[in-house]
Every structure is written in C-alpha cells, then in structure tokens.
Amino acid sequence: MSTVRIHDPVTDENDGVASPELDTAHGPILYLEDVTVSFDGFRALNVLSLYIDDGELRCIIGPNGAGKTTMMDVITGKTRPDAGTVFFGQTIDLLKLDEPSIAQAGIGRKFQKPSVFEQLTVFENLELAMHTDKRVWPTLFARLNSTQRDDIEIVMETIGLTAQRQERAGSLSHGQKQWLEIGMLLMQKPKLLLVDEPVAGMTHQETERTAELLLSLAGKHSVVVVEHDMEFVRSIARKVTVLHEGSVLTEGTMDEVQNHPRVIEVYLGD
Amino acid sequence: MGIGNLLARDRVGKTFLTLLALFAVVVSTLNLLVPEASAFHVSTFTVTVAGKYLCYALLALAVDLVWGYCGILSLGHGAFFALGGYAMGMYMMRQIGERGVYGNALLPDFMVFLNWKELPWYWLGFDHFWFASLMVLLVPGLLACLFGWLAFRSRVTGVYLSIITQALTYAFMLAFFRNEMGFGGNNGLTDFKDILGFNLQKDGTRVAIFLLSALFLGLGYITSRFVVESKMGRVVTAVRDAESRTRFIGYKVEHFKLWIFVFSAVLAGIAGALYVPQVGIINPSEFSPLNSLELVIWVAVGGRGTLYGAVLGAILVNYAKTIFTGILPEVWLFALGGLFVAVTLFMPDGLVGVARRLRLGGVR
Q1: Between chains, do B237 and A136 touch, taking CB under 8 Å as contact?
Q2: How far apart (Å, rounded) are the C-alpha atoms in residues B173 and A112?
Q3: What chain B residue is nearest to A76 in terms of C-alpha separation?
Q4: What are the backbone dihedrals phi and psi of residue B182, each rounded to the nearest 5 degrees, phi first?
Q5: What φ, ψ does residue B103 adopt, rounded to 5°?
Q6: Which residues of A touch B (CB under 8 A)?
Q7: pLDDT tens, position by position, A18-54
Q8: Which among A6, A133, A138, B322 would be 20 to 30 A from B348, CA to CA?
Q9: A242 near A231, Cβ under 8 Å?
C-alpha cells in the first residue's frame, strides 16, 4: 500500500488568518444537545444529543431517513433546528452563525453527491477552498504566495490529481470528483471534518486509500463520517453511533453495535 | 498586476483594444482633418452614432459581468444607465442658464412652465461638473447597493430576481414620467447647449465625447478583465454554478454578488452619462423594460461570459437596428425577438461560441 502524504494543517497554522477562538479544553469539539428539526410535522431529528471528542474519528450509521444528513445540515448552518443547542468547542454557538462563518470557524463538509465547481480547473477548485481571508476586497486582490502554491501542490499529490491540475473538474470521473472534494476539504484546514458517504461510487482501491487518508487525519482533526458501506465503516471505525428516527439508538465499537438487539431489529425489520 | 501581464492571456482582448484605439483615432481624424468634400470624410453624425454604439458596448459589458460571470440575470440594467444619463443631463440643463426659452437663469424651462418658484433641493449641486460626475457614479451605485442588499440577503435568485429587476426599471419609468418628480416628465431633459463650456454642436466637442466613450469602454474592459481574472472572478463563477456550495467553503456569497452588482451598475451609469450628451436628450423611455431586455439580447448574441462577446453583440445588434429601422421599422421588434430565440436554440454561446467552434474545427 502506498503511503499517502498528508497536508498538515496543525503545523501550518501560521497563515495569518484569524478564525474564532476554538476552546476544546473540556474534551468535546462538537456538542449537539436536544436538537429537534421538523419538516411539516415529520421529525427528522428528535431530541438528538451527540458529542464528538477532539481528535476523534466517529462513524455514523443508520437506515435511510434516520436523520444523518439533516444532522450535518444543522451543524453546517444549512438547516436551523426548532429546538436544541449546537456548540463548536466551549464557546462558539453554531446556531448564531451562517454557513460561510461556520466554514471559516473550522468546520468543513464533504457532500454526499460530489459537488465541485465543474467549470473551474482542479487547481482553481483547490485555490478557492484554501484557508485564507475570504472577504470581498482581499479576494479581489489575492495573489498566491509560494507557501500557498506548495499547499495546493501537496494536496493535489495527496488526492492523486497532479496530472489533471489544468483539467476542468466537470471532466473528471466520479471517483476523481470525490477525491477533489476531499482535497478541497483539506485545503480549508478544518478542525472538524464532516464527510458524507465518501466512498460511494469508488473502486476498491480508491476506497482503501480513502480509509487510509481519513485514519491519518484523525488525531489532529476530528472526523465525522456518515457511510452506508459497512465494510468501510468496520475498516476505519473506533466508535460508531447508530441513528434511528432522528435520535441516537446506541453508541460503541462496531462489534458492540452490530450485536445490539435494537440495531439488528432496526436494520433487519421486525 | 500590470496591464500587459493582465492581457497576456487575453489575445482577443488585446486585439479588441487595439482595434478600438485604431477606430477611435481613424474616425476622429477623418472627421476633423479631412475636408467635408472628400469621399473619406466622416460626418459628425456618423461620429455621434459610433459614440452611441460605444456607450451601448460599455453597458453590455456591465450586463455581461453580472449575468455571464455571476449568473444574475438583471432585466433592469437600463435603469442604472438612465440614472447615469439623468445625472449628466441635469448638469447640462443647469449649463443652459438664461439661454432657455423663458430666459430664466434660476430654473430650467420645464420648471418655469410648471410655475415652480425655486429649484428643488435634489437639483442643488448639479451646476458643478464634478458634482454631477460624482452623482453619475453614486446614484446608480447606491441604488444597486440598496436593491442588491435587500434581494441577495433574502436569497432571491433566478427568475424571481429577474422579474424584480424588471419591475424596478418599470417603477422608475412611471415615476420619471410624472411632472411633480422634477425631472421634466415625459419630455425629459433636452435642449442642451454646452458641456464644460464647450458647445455641444461643435464637431470638436462631438469628437471629444466620442473619444471619451472609446476611452471609457477600453478602461471598462480592462477593469472588468481584471475583476474576472482575479480570484474574485473565480468566486463569482463558482457562485453562478453552485451557489450554496460556495457558502460551505466560507465565502459570503451575498457580499460577492453585491460587489459585482454595484460595480456593474456604476459602469452602466458611466455609459449613460456619456450617451446623453451625444444623443442630446434623456427621457423616461430609457427606463422602459424593453430597453433592459434588449441589452440582454446583445450579450446573448455576442456570447456571454467573455466580455468581448458583449461588446461585439452590442455593436452588431445596434448596427442591425439602425439599418433595419431605416428600411422596415415595424418589423424590427419581431426580428429582435426572433434573433433571441434563434441564438438561444442554435448558438447558446453566441457569436464568440461559433467562432471558437470554427477555430477548433479548423485546427483538426
């Protein structure tokens, strides 16, 4: 298995860009408490409480409609909950921030459907995602410095798209788009990565490399992975959370979870 | 970034700017230095028509920035153009002084006619060219800022936004038609005598305004190119193609849309200010929704998202309009509508797209 070179945001923090202060002194990096979201009477999230520790790699599984994507929407500001609190570290109230501010605070998201900017090249996609001052005027006069160029080069190497740097993202294969999106996530230097179905549509080798990449990111970052592929979850998971009907059914290691009678019931039907 | 550096990758743009400079020099020389009897003489009328086209081209450039690059289909850009035009028109009205029909040095003719006793407060300052010039930039800019802030913050997009922009320009037209507004009602502002002390009927003045139009078109092109080649250009393209995705990587999409919308409105205002001294009149029909629709057609015909396509489209469609309305005036609107349908169906990338395809075909 080839070694993957990882872009290291922790040692690369000196890019002069201020983010809101993240305080993880008490352990968890993300707190969801009693979060409820209803759509036309249907409770997509039902008094959900979930804590993600700093540096943890957590997998979230659950049948369709369990609320996995809605949970990510709440964390990233796309959906406002009807009730509950969501904190990033001890001090940042995510419910008070809009999507760009949450992204700037250090939460990166990879979507279920690969969503890259199809008209822009691989290089430009990574450049846009890069952690830097994203206000209007600085963006108008932004020039890439050598450190930033190097950062992009390293990420392109990590995701294996160096040869495609000048290609439009729209012309990439499905798997390559998934990788490009992961690369964009790395460029953002997030402290918390939310990854929605990262290996959907990937070949076996690509899946293996993704697992390796996510494992190497954990520790320095907190990673939350939503995935249907049980084999993949088993290969990376230390702790698994099972969602069902908008709240947590159980948490534990993969083995514990798979032998839990309620989980078997939910997955196999009663 | 130097201009040379900026245009290094824009070969068509370099050609366009060279042609523009050449055109400006040749036309003015043939008007001023070649005697009228000569076959090579270019009449002042032609110079003015050419200057008008250049103003339209600048306006098309403004529309292309918001529509072609940022995906905001504004059907009300004519309003910004007209406001720029009114600001310049007000200055020229004040320059008339006591040479008006009523010989009133204090009030423009239409105010005397309405029995007004003093100049409304919003006309104060327009005696000064610098003030009027400032208003040419500020009025369209502030309107775009206010409108854009409200619309983009509420995340109004697509067709809804287009309809609201159309309503905006329509509302302005109705308002400016009213005499009480103090902008000359349906007659608008006209009968201008001079600008900065230069007689507007003199060939030299006409040529100077024509040259200024060419200069501002060139400058407008270069600044627009700078914007679309900057990282901001890539951000607005990203907004056009995947707005919510752009938010999730940390860009405040509303701010970017607002910036480019205001910048575009200011360009449109400048175009209007250069247009009015050349045509000699500004009236509420410039706000008509149809005008704003036409602009979009110019850009679509030329090819959006390229800048030079917009310029090409504006000049060609207006040239066709001049010819057509001379021969078959009643058919023009049908021809224009047909043109839009044909472009949408058969050449979605406009003339620039067709040229690109031919060139690629030629290479093979």
Answers
A1: no
A2: 48
A3: B248
A4: 85, 25
A5: 60, 25
A6: 76, 78, 98-100, 103-104, 108-109, 111, 115, 117-120, 124, 127-129, 134-136, 139-142, 184, 188
A7: 556 777 776 789 999 999 999 888 889 999 999 999 9
A8: B322
A9: no
Neighbouring CB atoms inside 10 A of A231's CB total 11
Structure-block tokens of residue A209: 């490399």
Cβ-Cβ contacts under 8 Å, A188 against chain B = 249-250
* Disruptive mutation site among A109, A125, A133, A134 for chain B (greatest number of B CBs within 10 Å): A134
On whether any CB of chain A is under 8 Å from the CB of B245, the answer is yes
- Give CA B221 to chain center in angstroms: 12
Which amino acid belongs to residue B146? L
CB neighbour list of residue B154: distance below 8 Å, 6 or more residues apart: none
Q: Cβ separation of A127 and B235 shorter than 8 Å?
A: no
pLDDT at B142 exceeding the cut of 90: yes
Nearest to B250 among A120, A134, A141 (CB): A134
Site from A102, A119, A122, A123 to mutate, B interface, most B CB atoms within 10 angstroms: A119
Q: Which residues of B touch A194 (CB under 8 A)?
A: none
CB contact at 8 A, B166 and B114: no
Q: Are A263 and A255 in contact (CB under 8 A)?
A: no
Cβ A190 vs Cβ A221: under 8 Å = yes
Give B211→chain A minimum CA distance, Å. 30
**Which residues share a beta bridge with A194?**
A109, A224
Q: Is the per-residue pLDDT at A268 higher than 70? A: no
Give dist(CA B80, CA B73) in Å, integer: 15
CA distance B185 to B173: 10
- Is there a contact between A120 and B238 if contact means CB atoms under 8 Å apart? yes
Q: Is the pTM of this model over 0.90?
A: yes
User: What would you measure as the largest C-alpha separation in chain A, in angstroms?
Assistant: 61
> In a 3-state reduction of DSSP, which class is residue A48?
strand
* Most B-contacting residue of A74, A117, A120 (CB-CB within 10 A), to test interface: A117
**A178, two tokens:** 């998934």
Q: Is the per-residue pLDDT at B6 higher than 90?
A: no
How many Cβ atoms from other residues are within 10 Å of residue B9's Cβ? 10
Q: What is the CATH number of domain A57-75+107-268?
A: 3.40.50.300
A226, β-bridge pairs: A60, A196
> C-alpha dihedral over B104, B109, B114, B116, to 10 degrees?
-40
Q: Is B251 on the interface with A (CB under 8 A)?
A: yes
Alpha helices in chain B (DSSP H): 3-7, 11-32, 44-64, 77-96, 109-113, 129-153, 158-177, 203-229, 231-241, 243-248, 253-279, 289-302, 308-327, 332-346, 350-363
Any idea where the domains of chain A sit in the sequence? 57-75+107-268
pLDDT above 70: percentage of residues in chain B: 99
Q: What is the ipTM of this complex?
A: 0.89
Buried/exposed code over A105-126 (b: 16+ C-beta within 10 A; e: otherwise): bbbbbbbeebbbbbbbbbbbbb
Tokens, residue B143: 């309107």
